[in-house]
Amino acid sequence: MKLNQKGFTLAETLVGVSLLAIVGMVAASFFTFSAKTQKEIVNDLEDSTDNVIAERMLLRDLKMSEPSFNNILVTDDNGLGFFDFDADRSTRSVDDKARKISLSMAGKTEFIFMITNDKLGGTLMYTPSLAYKIPYVPADPNTAAPLNFVSLNQNNEVTKANSKFWQPGVVLMLDTPAQVREMTPFGPNYNRPPRSPVFVGVVQGVGDTKLAALGISNFINRTNPMYPSETIDTEDAFLRNIPPMGGAAPLVRLKAVGIIKYYLDKDKTTGKVSLWRSLYSGNKFQSGALVASDVEGIVFSRKNPQDSLVSFEIVRKGK
Questions:
Q1: Separation CA 18–CA 25 (nearest Å)
Q2: Is the dihedral of CA 156, 157, 161, 166 positive or negative?
Q3: In this structure, how many other beta carbons lie within 10 angstroms of the beta carbon of residue 120?
Q4: Is 141 contained in some domain?
């Protein structure tokens, strides 16, 4: 058998080069597609992980938002009280409209609410007389003895019950299980939901110190629920205006609370918007922690004032 010693012809060479070019283009397209697909998968995984972390944090905070209901003055997109709550299903003290707060860089950028701070311990039942001194006892039994307010922690009573409560910067809330309505010359006002009086303040120091008022204006509803023209602006005023409990001794609850701010911020370099979470401590909001990046906004909502469930949705571009 004779072998061709002349090599490939020009036609054969051109055909071979063409085939190699086609194979190369197919291979390049495949690798480009694979790299693009891998990048998309990584981005989707990062978004999914981001969403899971953000959802867990938001769910935890909103689950603990019970102290906010009927106590803070946050309004929704339509000017309605977002945390209005009416537990009485037999009456309609407030409207039945849905509540919604939308955060975006084009509108409202922050949402502040109050949560139970269970990390510092459970609620304490507080005895009001522990906060006062009686300088003298009148000889006449029909004359009331003077009461001088000293501190909720007089003689370290709170510290002895829970040492974590009375530390500088801790936010404490006074309220009562008694829910009362506004009193009018014609009796209770059933057009408003019943609520407890509250006082929220910040511990200034150890020992017999008084609570400092919050540095957040128009946040806490400080009006006396029975007499809205009166303001409860100190713990002394709260203890002197505890609603009656049907002849029984008044019950006062003392609990640690946290004030949370979720807010949007736009990066000046990348232009991306991120969702941040900040905790109020030491009478100011601390540096925020990143919750979710590259978002358009977030929406908080409630079905109606009779439903205490707060829902949320993180809005992302194109999703």
A1: 11
A2: negative
A3: 18
A4: yes
Determine the Cα–Cα distance for residues 192 and 182; give it in Å rounded to an integer: 7
* Coil, helix or strand at residue 142: coil
- CA 84-55-274 angle, 5° bins: 95
What token pair was written down for 116? 């139970």
Secondary structure of residue 302 in the 3-state scheme: strand
* Three-class SS state of 256: strand
At 186-215, the pLDDT tens digits run: 888 888 888 899 999 999 999 889 999 888
Instruction: For residues 294 and 214, give the distance between their C-alpha atoms in angstroms, rounded to a whole number.
Output: 32
196 φ, ψ to 5°? -95, 145
Q: Is residue 3 part of a domain?
A: no
Structure tokens that stand for 214 in this block: 């919050």
DSSP H helices, the chain, are: 10-63, 157-161, 235-239
279 in a domain, yes or no? yes
- Among 265, 270, 249, 300, residue whose Cα is nearest residue 111: 300
Tally: H helices and E strands in the chain: 3, 16
Query: How much of the chain exceeds pLDDT 90, in percent?
Result: 57
Please give the tally of structural domains in the chain.
Answer: 1
What is the domain extent for residue 157? Answer: 28-319
Closest CA to 28 of 36, 17, 18, 39: 36
How confident is the model over 261-301, as pLDDT tens digits?
999 999 999 999 999 999 998 788 999 999 998 899 999 99
Q: Does an H or E element contain 113, and which?
A: strand 110-116
Distance CA 189, CA 184 (A): 6
